[in-house]
Amino acid sequence: MTEFDPAPESNGAQRRWQAGTDTFGRVYDVVLGVTSPIAYTEIAELADCSPNAAKKHLERLAEMGIARADRDSRPATYERNEGYLEWQDASRIATELSVEEIINRVEALETQRAEYESQFGTADPTAVNVFDHGDHETIHERMTAVSEWQGVIRDIRLYELARQLSQNDGHLIPA
């Protein structure tokens, strides 16, 4: 076989999942990987399980706040809950960093945000028209800067949430 020959056909379906991954784990992994609402039947296909099993586990994930369900659509659709992922990230930060380190990081992020606001003359990155300039390089630079600015804003929220968790022994609201 030369390097340009097509890949050989496998005798069996290639396993996407590691041995030992149960149905719930596969459905969980799939729902965390989707970025928009998807029918439970498609999730079942991706998770290598029956539609009934997928729906059962998706309902459980929705009850836990990990997924969001639109039961009015036919078939019902599910998507990951971004708030859950943010909470997970904030919880990890709160565990890994001290309150002082978190506060220092927020201060640095606030400085970056102020620089972007000064650069673009607005406090809202969505108000920036990146296509105001004609040449491709400038447009690309502005798109990159606005994207990074939005990331800074997200990180500020994340680190502030981590600070609250850290200062309140894992709770958002002081006891």
Question: In short, what is this structure?
Answer:
The protein has 175 residues and is mainly alpha-helical. The chain has 6 helices and 3 strands.
Relevant terms:
single chain, 175 residues, mainly alpha, 6 helices, three-stranded antiparallel beta sheet, 3 strands
What's the layout of helices and strands?
Elements (H helix, E strand, L loop, with lengths): L22 H11 L4 E2 H7 L4 H14 L2 E4 L6 E4 L1 H15 L2 H22 L15 H32 L8
Antiparallel strand pairs: 1-3, 2-3
Task: Describe this protein's structure.
The chain is mainly α and 175 residues long. 58% of the residues lie in helices and 6% in strands. The protein is built from six helices and three strands. It has helices spanning 23-33, 40-46, 51-64, 82-96, 99-120, 136-167; strands at 38-39, 67-70, 77-80. Strands 1-3-2 form a three-stranded antiparallel sheet. Helix 1 (23-33) crosses helix 3. The radius of gyration is 22 Å and the shape is globular. It starts with 22 loop residues before the first helix and ends in an 8-residue tail after the last helix. Mean pLDDT is 87; it is low at 4-14.
